[in-house]
Design goal:
Blueprint (H helix, E strand, L loop, with lengths): L1 H42 L10 E7 H6 L6 H15 L3 E4 L12 H12 L3 E8 L8 H4 L8 E4 L10 E3 L3 H6 L3 E3 L3 E3 L4 E11 L2 E4 L1 H9 L4 E4 L3 E4 L4 E4 L1 E3 L2 E5 L13 E4 H12 L28 E7 L7 E2 L7 E2 H13 L5 E3 L1 H20 L2 H24 L2 E3 L4 H21 L2 H9 L5 H9 L7 E14 L2 H5 L4 H21 L2 E7 L2 E6 L8 H25 L7 E16 L4 E6 L1 H16 L3 E4 H7 L4 E8 L8 E8 L1
Parallel strand pairs: 1-15, 1-16, 2-3, 2-16, 3-6, 4-10, 19-20, 24-26
Antiparallel strand pairs: 3-5, 7-8, 8-9, 8-14, 10-11, 11-12, 13-14, 17-18, 21-23, 21-24, 22-23, 24-25, 26-28, 27-28
Helix pairs in contact: 1-12, 3-4, 3-8, 7-9, 10-11, 10-12, 16-17
Length: 653
Amino acid sequence: MIKRKNKLFYFSSFFIYLFLTVIFFIFSISVIEQYARSFYTSVFASSKPQSDKIVEIVIDDYTVQKFKWPWTRDMYTDLFDYFSTYAYPKTIAMDSISLSFNENPTPAELRYINKVSLMKNLVLGFLPESVSQSAIDNKLLDGIDKFSIDAEIRTEFEDSPYNSLLIQSELVKKASHNYGSVNIATSGQEGIIFESIPIVKINNNYYPSLAFKSYLLANSTNKIIIDDDFIIIPKTGLKIPYFYSNGNFSSLIRYYKPIANDYSHISISAYKILETYKALKSGITPKNHPELFSKNADKYINPEFFKDKYVFIGANISGPSADVLKTPMTVRHPGVDIQATVSDNLMNNNILVPKFGFAFIWLFLLSLIAFIIIMRASFFKGLLLILLVDFLYLSYVCFSASNGSILYFATTPVICQIVTAIFAYSFKFLNENRNKEKIKQAMGKYISQDVMKNVVKDIDNLGLGGKRAIVTVLFSDIRGFTSLSEKMSAEEVSMILNEYFSEMEPIITKYNGVINKFIGDAVMAIFGEPIRDENHARNAVKCAYEMLKKVEYLREKWLLEGKPKIEIGVGINTGEVFIGNIGTETRMEYTVIGDTVNLASRIEGYNKVYKTNLLVSSSTYENIADMADVIKIKEVQIRGKSKKMDIYEILRI
């Protein structure tokens, strides 16, 4: 029978370990891993971008203050005209799909469409969608093939869920030369951006992201190769490591630390561009007014600055509709800066490389090492060795991150190792000494440490029941606390009670008392059991007297702190009670019951009637008559008692 129980214990322990490992593995990947990746990504972010040729034009709050929002078509047209007529950047990417057009275009819309048709270096944005077959707009799908990539596929991919796209309008689509997806991947419940989506599959064609299209356009190519691990651009030799999921080819982003506000690259307010455009149109040029276009000029910017640069246009305005996303760098990262960051990664081949296989190898190795250490080393020595292994492992991850690669599950192996260590140590200790588990179970059933010590002496006979004994019961209560608490917040009430109880508990313990329970603002304590004390009545009165002195100190302290004035009343009675365990076999409470307890509570209540602080019964007084000055209160009618009785106010010990 014992062997069967042992086998059951070992097998159940093993399956519990597997279960916990799987749970924590899932929890780590879905929650903890995001924070770890955020930490490594932000700490090892490049201190400055690789390229100074990327410029962000931001429709910011200052721009919105000067021009109404949303913008008119002419404002976008003027912005495009500035770059196509005066500035000549290499590419212009528009991180937006928000413009809508009338079926019969207005003159302003026609000017916008005409300007788009003339800009072969302009990349507009679209958003891939999954819609029902009946909701597909066939007009928008017609002709989008011209925006796809010439992709040579050297592997197989599952069908994409995308079958439509969100785009500005049919007229703009026909006029434009380039489109790129503005979709960006989020990870886990926190929605942190770790990855870009350089390519998206719609139906059977492959379409570039905004940043990737800008890269291809700048290098005058549209041909790529997709194999099992990389997206390859033959003309430039760039290899983008990716992983495929739900029609998206995701690639890790290597972030750069911000150089101004939340922007990692040069950012310029769109207002400044439009002001410069108006000046140029009116004849104010760098040639005839060089002082207005100098490097330190605040009003205008020289168009020569943008020559051969990569421009990204996007909005970053305050409010719920702001185009900001959560990244490892900040919780409000402008979307246009993320696009610029991805473009920089591509231009300079500065992409963060994920390591998938190594993560699972490390997960197995760290768990195995932890198990071996625990089985062969003492607790403290084993703990130090495990911490050393973790330090070396995390140092390796740091080194990898600083050199452009990162384990895709960086901290999950450590989490699983910790689970292994915790479970193994628990199993080891339980297997060596079962009595410790019994003590833990007993401790869960009791509050008082003194009660626990009594239980441990006879732990195998723990059960319901008890005995009769002569004890002294003390009740204390804060006067008028209910009305006081109505004037305070719950937090203030809690702070006062916690401080009050913290001061009372050591006094009760000092006089061999055991706190039986806290009842709101009241305390019930027992003297004489379970701590045997022949002088329990005398010690109870001494305890009460010292409690009152401590309250005087607290009252002065709280008044200085602006807290309410408090008074307490104490009632004490000595007599026979039933003391022991009551409740159920699975949940017990060590307490006292009997008429002695009820009488102590009611005597305490008479402090309110007689404006006193410390009252004792005649049975208690018989034990302390030689040590206290008292006032006798004769023939008090106690509720629940047929006969009147005497009670005593303690004036001084």
